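REQUEST ID: PR-0412
SUBMITTED BY: lab tech R.K.
PRIORITY: routine
TASK: structure prediction, single protein chain
INPUT:
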Amino acid sequence: MLEGKAMVEDSDMPVKMQVQAMSFASQALDIFDVVDCKSIAGHIKKEFDERYGSGWQCVVGSNFGCFFTHSKGTFIYFQLETLKFLIFKGASTPS
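STATUS: complete
OUTPUT:
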């Protein structure tokens, strides 16, 4: 597990959920090759959907841009090893 090496860059998630996000990311890195970002993101999304209900989105990579609207209290952006992780639950209206 690598939670201690993760660096949160921005988040509005409760701390317990942030820790869970980093734990799922660490698990995914133990299971998948670091270059398999799609499988890593899929693993994290599946875990969040199962634990916190459907509608979660996950982006993993070393260089990406994005623009989105998220539900309040569901956003985290962090780095673990060489990858950046963006996890959020989508919203139909700005929060």
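NOTES: The mean pLDDT is 90.
REVIEWED BY: pending
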